[in-house]
Design a protein that fits this description.
Strand content: 15-25%
CATH architecture: 2-Layer Sandwich
Oligomer: single chain
Structural class: alpha+beta
Number of domains: 1
Shape: globular
Bound molecules: guanosine-5'-monophosphate, zinc ion
CATH superfamily: HIT-like
Distance between the termini: 31 Å
Radius of gyration: 13 Å
Length: 110
């Protein structure tokens, strides 16, 4: 999608240090980290939110990448968050999973 910042990161139009990449997914550190470790995992294909995901493969691609990355980083405990829609806190409309670690997280999330 032309005007999507995460598409630009995924297709390398915007130079970003990728901490993980495979055929379908990339991961990179959040610009505004909310924890000592805070990275985002996104599919290379544009889906504006979770509501647009239409295949098991897309979920599998995103979520199966997470333990590979956390293992590489030596992280065993972490919070994953997917904000869907503005009211839920979504600000970038290309689906992404937040992965955060390195501090204690409260529940319920605010
Ligand atoms: P949301 O609020 O949509 O769930 O999360 C969007 C996240 O993307 C925010 O945590 C924000 O800091 C991060 N973000 C927005 N633009 C950029 C960017 O250009 N580069 C990186 N690395 N993160 C971004
Ligand atoms: Zn996009």
């Amino acid at each position: 999608m032309t005007d999507c910042i995460f598409c630009k990161i995924a297709n390398k139009e915007i130079q970003t240090n990728l901490i993980y990449e495979d055929e379908n997914v990339v991961a990179f550190n959040d610009l505004s980290p909310q924890a000592p470790v805070h990275f985002l995992v996104i599919p290379k294909k544009h889906y504006s939110s979770l509501n647009e995901i239409d295949s098991k493969d897309a979920f599998a691609d995103i979520f199966s990448a997470i333990p590979k990355i956390t293992k590489k980083l030596g992280i065993k405990e972490y919070r994953t968050v997917v904000n869907t829609g503005a009211e839920a806190g979504q600000t970038v409309f290309h689906i992404h999973v937040h992965v955060m670690a390195g501090r204690k997280f409260n529940w319920p999330a605010g």
